Amino acid sequence: MSIALSTQNLMVSRASSTSAPMRVAKTEPSRAPQRLRVLLVEDDEADVYLIRRALGEIPRVAEVRVARDGVEALEMIDNWSSGPDLAILDLKMPRKDGFTLLRELAGRKSASFPSIVLTSSKAGADVYRAKKRGAAEFLTKPNGVERLRTVLGEAIAKL
Known about the structure:
Structural class: alpha/beta
Number of strands: 8
Strand order of the largest sheet: 5-4-6-7-8
CATH architecture: 3-Layer(aba) Sandwich
Shape: globular
CATH superfamily: Response regulator
């Protein structure tokens, strides 16, 4: 006799209705990881180039859109029909910085996606402030595209 409990992803098998032992095996859903639509919020053109290049090498990333500051990021989110699945943002930007953007995203019901801070800052106070405002990850920009790809890939895999 076999009973499949699809809601719990368990399969219980029993060879006969006698006192044979039961075997319980967990099955994993057979679906590929979601491909992500990423909003990159970065004002430095050279960093945009390097980050887009690194993200382009990460298989889970399907699309990258760029905003130059927090004001433009909020406008893009409001006008993006399906919205981003992830935001990667710098802290120091003109008009609206990353800390303010994180705080405003946390207050929006339409912004139910995680944010990764990617900045040149190594200050513990910046890490604390970013996490307090809702950042899922805090990354310091490494040197080189390969290292950047590795750091971003590891952070995305955690989400």
